[in-house]
Design goal:
The protein is mostly helical and 112 residues long. It has a single domain (9-110), classed as Multidrug-efflux Transporter Regulator, Chain: A, Domain 2 (Orthogonal Bundle), CATH 1.10.1660. 61% of the residues lie in helices and 4% in strands. It has 5 helices and 2 strands. It has helices at residues 15-22, 26-35, 53-68, 73-82, 87-110; strands spanning 42-43, 49-50. The chain has a two-stranded antiparallel sheet with strand order 1-2. A hairpin with a 5-residue loop joins strand 1 and strand 2 (49-50). Helix 3 crosses helix 5 (87-110).
Amino acid sequence: MPYKDKPIVKKYYTIGEVAKELKVATSLIRFWETQFDFIRPKKNAKGNRKYTQEDLKKIRLVYHLVKEKGFTLQGAQEHIKNSKDGIDSQADLVVSLKRIRTFMVALKNSLP
């Protein structure tokens, strides 16, 4: 298998890349770090945040609860606290459903 056929998967993302993906300000992500104790990105010697795929899942879950479902910050914290075992599965489910929706919309738009 040639080298170029393998997909490149990033290990770390900057706060700017995360903010751009979610279409929010970087300050909002930093604020969520102070409000949700499970969002703890690694920091380099300069203090720049480096987000892993796991961090992205957690941030997407917070985004989904707060921005899309309309939870307050306290409500989102309680929801996550009460379903501690299901945080990762909920985050994966949200990502999967968004991919399916994107595919379905693209399919609908391609029909005559």
